[in-house]
């Protein structure tokens, strides 16, 4: 009895050891601790268990056939996970890139850091797993320890593994250090157990998001004495890699020679191939069951609905192949019906189908379709309208045309829905209007049109200016801005490609604030109001040669007081808006803005809900009086 | 030299005075007069000033940091530094000042003075708070409010204060001040130059003195017809206005926008930009247009206050002007042709 309990504790302790996998006995399947998960990928170990979490545990087909018998309800994502390069739904060049890096950094056992970025479901983890399998590299993965764990164990045990009490950060550091330092013990049973290791970090300890400095220090330390490569997987959503910027700023990337490979969403054609393969294999296997087989158009619809996320595509495929047709079948696009109605114009038909398609996507496990800011802006600025004949054809249907005196307001039918474009751009309407404002002038030829567009933008700003009602009226503001811009551009120039720029306003207003704050704090002794300080004193101080002032004061004088009188100054550099960029930086700006507003709101709500706060305030006042 | 009506007020009241609201344009000498008044009250002790950094905790537990300038007898503060928390600053600051007694009330006055600057920029909230505070602490402190105009000061405050208007000095006064200052500095200022400076300064005495000093740096001994330097931003603004008048096209508007941004980064407030632009543009356009342009400017200046992002409204004003001006020129051309 006693002996067995001893053994138990030994076992459990072993489970928390660092170098366990090689001598853990095969029956002991649960050999992953809370701290990390060891995965082994050699074919010689068929008992190696599959992942519980994701499809990333690529395993051989041999095992798969076995597991199908065991578990027919297994998600297809896990069942058909790729196990060779050929099966990866990633572009060959990308795989090659990652492979080259891995080869280059494992063989002489020198370390290095690689970041893989890309939207979720683009095959980042799968690529690493498959490649490490092929190159014979052990993958050591970090997973965040769950904080509940120590409470499950009995007290003495909990004391024994004191490390559980230490912070995530310390554990992470220790993990990196140990994996880096110690090799796997070689046991007799292991055939050619590979020496090469690779550390995979996909779960970042939460602390790092708040204080990236600590993370950077750990990275620096790691790079200094690293022996094995370290791969980070940052799966940013499509809306910019926010965490990537904070965790790995440019300086760190350069300082530590971090290479960065970004994955694109899986292309629809590749996706189709994968889906067809899976369907084929499923139908082979489950011939006895009634499996609903979606046709090609339905598959295509699935692909386009999920914006390149292969995991969700496979999931939704399995979902819609369920035998129970009555509930889950996809509706076929009613193209046939549409073709019959000849009276509809071409354009309108296209619109009808496209909008219907969108609805379909939403219906079956699809994601919200998002558009990059660049494209969204382009959609508004290059606004596409129906051509004349289409308009003529629809005229009869849509009722009488505009009366004579309003005829100059006539425009062709819009092909885009401005509100939905703004919504899908994943930015606030205000920021979207700022971007439009920055770029719209390139698309206008007549000053009269510009005048009207400007007025609409100004109106939109008025609408969103009042923060108390902004959450209600903000959408109207962006609607006014976009539609106003589109409508006022009476003769659309057929401009070719135009580079779009980030709005300079954010930068300008920030500079304006900083400069005036600096000036006020440095020149307080003049006791002037800010306006007269900035418009009268500083410009003249710039003209006087004053040597008695401090360095900071002189800097401000030169910065604020002097203006270069040349035609265009290089102070404001236009930042090009990247193809796939989202308004990330400005998001921060917005956040700041929001914070200020929140403060404001707090102060305002205090006014209105004074009653509620009365008790608290009373307390404070008493304190004052006792003083 | 320049008559100080404030000190007269003091004499009439026999050493005591009600709350004061001193208003007048910038550079007219409001603060100078207030300091004269304080010295009259407390003696030279008020000129020992110190800059204090105060932290005030708002009821929302938010800390507001504000700088005050104080002597033993008075405290000067610009509540607008606290942004939209100015109400808290006014309440707390006046409360603390008013609750502490004067050290030697036998030899000194039994009240302290709180000098609030830029009262016209206070939020409505803060102004109402000020009204209550004024009544409450009348016994121990006097308020002197300083603002450029009374139009943004709410009625209740105006009626509780004795309003004193400080007008701009006349050109002759500016000239005489300039010559006397130059005499003290040991410089010889030709009367023509003094006249020129006072013309260009717009009777703003601070500006006139700064201009004079800049002239001194530029060239000494003075010559009667030397250039009086103007602030860079005014020159820049004038060039901007010229650019608007000379061509009306979207491309030009883009250039103008860049220039507006440049002005904004140099901390020129948007309403001053629009005012400067209008003045320059009005000089350049025909009498028929003037009313319309002025109306537009007023319209967009109002929107500037309501909206949150100034550039939209500045640009809308420029675009509107361009459109009107272009139409006017084209009509003029047509009329010439036929």
TrEMBL record, chain A:
Main location: nucleus
GO cellular component: nucleus
InterPro entries associated with the record: Checkpoint_prot_Rad17_Rad24, P-loop_NTPase
A molecular function GO annotation: ATP binding
A Pfam family: Rad17
Entries under Gene3D superfamilies matching the protein: P-loop containing nucleotide triphosphate hydrolases
A GO biological-process term: mitotic DNA replication checkpoint signaling
Family note: Belongs to the rad17/RAD24 family.
Name used for this protein in its record: RAD17 checkpoint clamp loader component
Species for this entry: Crenichthys baileyi
UniProtKB/TrEMBL annotation, chain B:
SUPFAM superfamilies assigned: P-loop containing nucleoside triphosphate hydrolases, post-AAA+ oligomerization domain-like
GO MF annotation: an example: DNA clamp loader activity
Gene3D superfamilies membership: 1.10.8.60, 1.20.272.10, P-loop containing nucleotide triphosphate hydrolases
InterPro entries registered for this protein in UniProt: AAA+_ATPase, DNA_pol3_clamp-load_cplx_C, DNA_Rep/Repair_Clamp_Loader, P-loop_NTPase
Recorded GO CC terms: DNA replication factor C complex; nucleus
Annotated ranges, domain AAA+ ATPase: 16-172
Keywords: DNA replication, Nucleus
Pfam families the record matches: DNA_pol3_delta2, RCF1-5-like_lid, RFC_C
Alphabetical GO biological process terms: DNA repair; DNA strand elongation involved in DNA replication
Subcellular location: Nucleus
Quaternary structure, from the entry: Subunit of the RFC complex, an heteropentameric complex consisting of a large subunit RFC1 and four small subunits RFC2, RFC3, RFC4 and RFC5; the RFC complex interacts with PCNA. Forms an heterotetrameric complex with RFC2, RFC4 and RFC5; this complex has ATPase activity but is not stimulated by PCNA. The heterotetramer of subunits RFC2, RFC3, RFC4 and RFC5 interacts with RAD17. Interacts with CNTD1; this interaction facilitates crossover formation.
Family statement drawn from the similarity comment of this UniProt entry: Belongs to the activator 1 small subunits family.
Function: Subunit of the replication factor C (RFC) complex which acts during elongation of primed DNA templates by DNA polymerases delta and epsilon, and is necessary for ATP-dependent loading of proliferating cell nuclear antigen (PCNA) onto primed DNA.
Protein name: Replication factor C subunit 3
Species: Crenichthys baileyi
Gene field: RFC3
